[in-house]
Amino acid sequence: MVTAGTFGTSLPNTASHEGAGTVVAVGQSVKGFQVGDRVLAGLPHGRCGICTDCQGPENYRQYCNKVNYVGVTIDGAFAEYMLVDARESMLLPDRLGFESAVPLACAGITVWRGVLQSGLKAGETLCIVGSGGGLGHLGIQFAKALGLRVIAIDARDEGLGLSRNCGADSVLDARLGKEKVVEEVKKVTNGGCADATVNVSDAKEAAALACAVTKVHGLMIQIAQPAEVCIPFVEFIFRDIRVHGSLISSKGEAQRMLDLVVEHDIKVKTNAFHGLKELPKAVELAHSGKMQGKPVILIDEEALRREKESGLKIL
After folding, report:
1. Which end of the chain is more exposed for a tag (fewer CB within 10 A), N or C?
2. Residues 95, 105, 269, 299, Cα dihedral to 10°
3. Cα(230)–Cα(204) distance, rounded to whole angstroms?
């Protein structure tokens, strides 16, 4: 989306909006961080601090319309050093390694907020469309950690396998077609469909499918960002499906996610590449359609060595 000009990115711009690393310097007004701290880099950067969203509820601050985003509108994480906003960044739990942390900086905080936005309680059923990707496989585990039943839907063999490995209660192949998938969802929900659905797939038919597998009067959370979101009128008018968009987590929500990851040993599926020189290989894998999870570029080998020698059970 950046290379396509969707966000009006000014070039040149260092890519990657997912980063984690060790603090080497702090600004004079920074509180809560010091040199040597291990941090998850905040995706937002430079909120105004005075608009309605900045002054409103904590979980709305990421909607500031003056904000920049690392790797999107300002330089990002494909570098040895990056500048991050302390107001949006978080200390990493000791047991959370850099390789697992990196995808949480966007994929994690994005799908985590979608799960929270569903408003479901333990024992209720959440469906995830696009369950076997970088966001979806985390969403499955987050939902299970909250006590939800999870129906996973994907259209790739790799994604279906990852969904099963992540503990989904039911795994369905979207390639069967909408009618068959809805039929299968009804079978595993006693005819009622999912209490809510999170859509992280930008496939043309995904939003319509996400609504169709949601119960009457239910909620569909749209996270994927295709150019157009296509939903038949029957879902709105005759089934009273409510559609709610969701961006990324606030800092407070993201901190809760990090705590959950460590408490429940959430497994972040990564594909590790060592050094910036391997970036083309990572891009090739990401575009191959065969990837499970997220590609991660590991740069600070010394920090990784310290993790291994810490004596902790690193996730």
Report:
1. N
2. -80
3. 7
